[in-house]
Design a protein that fits this description.
alpha/beta; Rossmann fold; four-stranded parallel beta sheet; 15% strand; globular; binds 1,3-dihydroxyacetonephosphate; binds iron/sulfur cluster
Length: 314
């Protein structure tokens, strides 16, 4: 089917079936342009919790669609490609994390939403890169914390808060591949440019960065900062909304050390296409299905996160 036909088909099916299409900022431009809502992982979970649609089509990765299902268990949640995983979520297996918790009793377990439902079911509070600092600061200052799975986000938050944190050794293959050397060369060639980075980046990139934040925070920074040039160390899908908001600013995706596509795209995010969205809406498949007890247990840390975020106006 041609692109125009696909878009018309998606619009028709979405109307007929009372469906909503939620998209992460790392999706392709054409998906972000047809989505009902595009946001970061915190905003997407807030949307999923409140939607009155009957079907949620999640244009993102598996853990995000699972989070939507956990927050809206009576809705049909569809992921257009069930192979859209996440290397960070994969770096934290249930049996290993359970042992880590049991080996370190007396800790509050805080996990990033980039985890499977099984890991959330073992956690006390969830967080995203938009609220991790505030979630940790909401706990008493002497609280011992287990944080997982991203070691870069964990180390960054520990450096900001000085809290007692045991950090799981997981990471994201996209954010760990930026080349500081190549970034510095671009900065040299573009005087006055600011380097902005996602907290999943490694420490050398974070230290060199003028600003560190979640995808939505990076977008807001580009909108509000006076600089005219930015080097952006996160998945380049975020450039779509940045370009729409700031067409006159120069936005340069940070280069990777090495990658097969020569860019820093998340191969999992990019598995989702307009055609797969159309088919998944038409056949209402693949659907996210989770056992009731996992939904019940995993909902507790996510709802705690949403409550704390709401109280803090995040
Ligand atoms: P955000 O929380 O900024 O949306 O990031 C999610 C993610 O997967 C980053 O790689
Ligand atoms: Fe997971 Fe990294 Fe892709 Fe984000 S960019 S979804 S953390 S693999």
């Amino acid at each position: 089917m041609e692109k125009d036909e696909l878009i018309k088909g998606i619009e028709r099916l979405r109307r007929e079936k009372n469906a909503v299409i939620l998209s992460h900022y790392y999706q392709t431009d054409d998906i972000q342009s047809i989505a009902d809502f595009t946001g970061d992982s915190l905003a997407l979970s807030q949307k999923a919790a409140k939607t009155d649609a009957d079907i949620i089509v999640f244009a993102g990765v598996y853990f995000m669609a699972e989070t939507a299902k956990i927050l809206a268990p009576t809705k049909k949640v569809i992921i257009p490609d069930e192979n859209a995983g996440c290397s960070l979520a994969d770096s934290c297996k249930k049996e290993d994390f359970e042992k880590f918790i049991n080996d370190n009793p007396g800790h509050t377990v805080i996990t990033y939403v980039n985890t499977t439902a099984d890991i959330k079911a073992l956690s006390h509070i969830s967080c995203t890169s938009s609220n991790a600092k505030q979630i940790i600061e909401s706990l008493p200052s002497d609280e011992k914390i287990i944080f997982g799975p991203d070691r870069n986000l964990g180390n960054y938050i520990r450096s900001l808060t000085g809290r007692d944190m045991l950090i799981w050794n997981g990471s994201c293959h996209v954010h760990e591949q930026f080349s500081l050397e190549a970034i510095m060369k671009i900065m040299e060639e573009n005087k006055g440019a600011k380097l902005i980075a996602h907290p999943e980046c490694e420490m050398p990139v974070r230290i060199a960065a003028d600003f560190i934040g979640s995808t939505s925070e990076l977008l807001n920074y580009v909108k509000s900062d006076k600089a005219e040039k930015f080097v952006i160390a996160t998945e380049p899908g975020i450039l779509y909304k940045m370009k729409l908001a700031c067409p006159d600013k120069l936005l340069i995706p940070a280069p990777p050390k090495d990658s097969t596509c020569g860019c820093s795209e998340c191969n999992f995010m990019k598995l989702i296409t307009l055609e797969k969205i159309y088919n998944s809406l038409k056949f209402e498949y693949p659907e996210i299905l989770l056992p009731d007890d996992i939904i019940e247990k995993a909902a507790i840390p996510i709802k705690r996160m949403l409550d704390i975020s709401e109280k803090l106006g995040l």
